[in-house]
Structures are given as C-alpha cells and as structure tokens.
Amino acid sequence: EYRGLVKHTGGCHCGAVRFEVWASADLHVFNCNCSICTKKQNRHFIVPASRFKLLQGADNLTTYTFNTHRAQHTFCKTCGVQSFYTPRSNPDGYGIAPHCLDDGTVQSISTEDINGKEWEKAVKEHKTIRNMSK
C-alpha cells in the first residue's frame, strides 16, 4: 500500500487487459495535442512503474511506436483500447487513461493542456512532468 494513494483498477473494453494502479483519488490528467494523442483522445495521468501492475492480458497487448520510438503505445489486440502506455516524457513510468478506470475510486479530475505539437519545448518548460514517474 501507498500512503495517501488509492488503488484503482481498470482495463480495456473487452476485459482481456486488466491492471491496478496506485494514484491519488484526485487525478491530474494531461490533455496533449500531439498528432497521436489528438487522434486517440489520449488523456492520461502519469505514475511511476512501481505503482502499476498488469494483472492480466500481457499476451493480448501490442505496441505502436513512431518518430523517436520512445513512447510505447500499447493497446489491446482484441478491442483496440489503449488503457495505459509508456510516455515519451516518462519512459520509466506509465500514462494511465482515467476513462479506463473502474468506477468508484476517482473523486475528481483536473485537466492540464500540454502543447505536444511542440513537444520538446513544452516538456522543457513544464516544471514537473519529467519527475512524475519518480
């Protein structure tokens, strides 16, 4: 258990992929406007890898990469839903889709826009994003 955090569970649409993640009940979600996040509507919050556990479905995940190939866009082979991924900004953590969490553990969601169209500049200027997986 993690002090002050809540265990959230979630997964993809078909249920093949399931995970648990320890995070605040009050989520800070990024709304990125880069090409892939815009097309997927990839709103996400970031956690360290130590607070994420894949419960089932590793064999049902596939990965898409592009450009620098640092971000690992994982999604379910059956239903196509990306419930989590490895973000370029935090390759040692996970970006979790709050809309893929099961009901009952999220109290609030605050959303922060991030200019992924100018990714390098946005991440350099952001005070905390690179440390969110620590």
UniProtKB/TrEMBL annotation:
Residues 8-120 form the CENP-V/GFA domain. InterPro entries: CENP-V-like, CENP-V/GFA, Mss4-like_sf. PROSITE patterns: CENP_V_GFA. One of its GO terms (molecular function) is metal ion binding. Pfam families: GFA. Keywords: Metal-binding, Zinc. The keyword Metal-binding applies. This is Centromere protein V.
